Structure formats: structure tokens, C-alpha cells
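re: ur question from the group chat, yeah i did fold both. here u go
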Amino acid sequence: MSAPRQPLDALRRPFLVAALLCVVASFCICLGAPLLVAPPPFDARVDNVLSNPQTQDLLDAFDLDADDVGDALADASPDSPPGLGIPALALINAVLVLVLALTAARLLIGDRAVGAVQGIVSVVVGLVGLLCAVGVALASFTALLAMVSLLVSAPFGTLAYLAVFGSFPVGSAAVLVGLILVLQLSGLVCLALAQQRFLTSKGLVLLFASAAALTIVTGLLHSFVPGFMASITDALAALISAVVAAVWFVLQLVLGIVAVLRVLQLGRQTSLRTQGAASEGQDTTSTESSS
């Protein structure tokens, strides 16, 4: 005898868990990007800038000595370039993790057990995520203005920009962006395999599309400009990702508040019904005693 076939709309739990794991993995990669994609040491970046023929032409045009410029750049901040683009993708991936986690919990644990806390979780995560998105947007906008100002402030500003921000690891960043995109698309495929009804949820599909689009935009902004300008477009990508993620966090915050109000209203109605039933019981008992 052949095994009975599952209906097309049946929930396949392993694929649902796999979709959640794919999204969590992409979120973790975004957060760990600064550790995975590290620029060369500051001294090596300075030597690379000063040995560039175009830099030598710039020094000759302003009658500057390379050793003096090297000493001046040595006093600059040796911090690594900001690299905000890929970490900023963690914001939209956090929304994905929240939505999929709540969806999986409702289907795997039960709507009654999850419904009471779903609104509270959405409010807390939405508020914290919104604050983080605003912070990333401000930081990326400030970094964008600072880098553009340095780049156009020849000669020392340009040299300082090239030394600090001109060695953005475009190749390594492209690998991470590609991996994040593959995980996001794999999560969507696993979600469709878990239950085809998920594809009819316009909000969920739009959220996946937003995450994938931001990932693609980040990769394009890294690759379509010369390498020494990638730090500028990286900050621009972070700004775009933060703004889009902020919109999604606001939506989750509003939906969470609505869910909390519904739970409170339902609890109040249940309490009133219980009190009404108790009052009716007492009245009935009193009537029977009088009789």
C-alpha cells in the first residue's frame, strides 16, 4: 500500500522551521559582517595611498612631500571604515525574524498560547527596532556627509579619505551580500514548501521582497562605483536600508498596539460576562430560597 498523500494546503513543519533558520542565519551574518569583512591595517592603507601614482601626481600638484603627508596621516584616526551597509541589512532581517517567529509559533504551538503575548512582543520589538533604525540612519547620514566633505577637500582631506576609507573590501562584501540574498530567497522557498497559502499573504511576500531588494541595492551600490568611493555608497545603502526598515518597524508597532488593545478588550468582555453570570446565579439562588 502506498502512503497517503498530504493535501497541498497541509503544513509541513520541517520546511517552516528551515525557513525560520534561513532568516535567522541571514540576520546573524549581517550583524557579524564587521568581523567577517575587515579592511587592511591603517598603516598598510596609508602606504598604499602614498604609493599610488595618482596620489603622487596630486602631491606634485600641491608641492607636498610624501613623508610629510605620511606623518600627517599617521595622526589621523586609525579606526576602520564604518562599513554600515551590510550591518544595516540586519534591521529588515530582524523584521523578517519577528514575523516568521510569530507565524511559526502560532502554527506549531497554538494560536491561544501565542495570541496573548504576540501583541506585546510586536510592540517591544517594533519600538526597539525603530529606535535602532533611526540611530543607524543618523549615523550613516553623518558618515556620508563626513566622507564626501573629506573627498572634496583637496589635498589633505582627499588623502585622509583615501587612507581611512579608500580601501573598502568590495570583494568580501560582495560574497557576504550574495550569501545573505541566497539565504533570504531560500527562506521564501522553504516557506512556500511549508504551505502554499503563505504565498497568498501579500504582507509577508512584500516583506521578503523588501529584504531582497535592499540586499541587491546594497550590492549594486558597492560595485557600480570605483573602489575608493565604495565607502560613500556603502553609507548611502545603510541610509536607504534604515529608512525602509523604520517603515516596517512602525507598521509592526501599530499592529502590536492594535493586538494588545484587542486582548485587553476581550479580557474585559470576558470579565463582564463572568460577573454577569455570577450575578444571575446569585439572583436565581435568592429566588429559590424565597420560594
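okk and heres the other one u asked abt
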Amino acid sequence: MKSVRGMLPKTKLGNAMIKKLRVFSGPDHTHEAQAPKLWRYN
């Protein structure tokens, strides 16, 4: 989280962005309704 915070602006906008940030460990997450698709780049 510290590395992400360091890349954000040091303003009110940066504070709002860090509050909305969600970090998930592993492939399990709560965004199943969005149905992400695997995209392969050749």
C-alpha cells in the first residue's frame, strides 16, 4: 500500500483515490458480476 500511496498525488484527490482502492490477494475477489475476461497478447 505504501508504494501505491507514493505514486498518487499528495492532495485531496490522492486521499480520495486511496480510500477507494481495493487490493485482493489471489484470484478470488468480489467483482464476479463484472465478468472479467482473460486477454492474451501475442
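fwiw on the second one: Helices lie at 2-7, 12-20. The two ends are 31 Å apart (CA to CA). idk if thats what u expected
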